[in-house]
Amino acid sequence: MSVIYMLLTISICVAVVFFFVFILSVKSGQYDDAYTPSVRMLFEDELVTPKENKTTNDKIELNK
């Protein structure tokens, strides 16, 4: 039974260390995306689609 407590304690300590290293890497910018902003401008026209304005269409129908 004492082996289970020892393994549980060691695994929690390892998990805390990995979590701490993960937080440090996120704060240092390790996971920042440096590629997408340079490519986004090439596909910007495809992402933006004009939306119809409902209020304009309603006003036109009311005026008829």
From TrEMBL:
The chain crosses the membrane at residues 6-26. Pfam families: FixS. Keywords: Membrane, Transmembrane, Transmembrane helix. It comes from the Bacteria. NCBIfam families: ccoS. PANTHER family: FIXS PROTEIN. This is Cytochrome oxidase maturation protein, cbb3-type. The lineage of its organism: Bacteria, Pseudomonadati, Bacteroidota, Flavobacteriia, Flavobacteriales.
